[in-house]
Write a structure and sequence with these properties.
This protein is mostly beta strands and 61 residues long. Helix content is 0%, strand content 28%. The protein has no helices and 3 strands. A 3-stranded antiparallel β-sheet has the order 1-2-3, with no helix packed on it. The model has no long low-confidence stretch (mean pLDDT 90).
């Protein structure tokens, strides 16, 4: 990760992790996109949330 500091505690110790449940375009959809969280290891503040595979949300009818 780039050199950044936590806005809460000032730490520069960040990690990324994904959520257990994927984000789906509809309730019955079989495809899902992972949510990737960037957070401070020292205090737990989430710095950013990124969605992967956003193309599944594109409505090309």
């Amino acid at each position: 990760m780039e050199n950044k500091s936590c806005r809460s505690c000032g730490s520069t110790n960040f990690k990324e992790a994904s959520d257990y449940f994927p984000l789906k375009p509809s309730k019955g959809s079989l495809q899902g996109a992972q949510k990737v969280f960037s957070f401070c290891i020292d205090c737990g503040i989430v710095d950013s949330i990124r969605i992967e595979n956003t193309e599944i949300f594109d409505n090309k009818d």
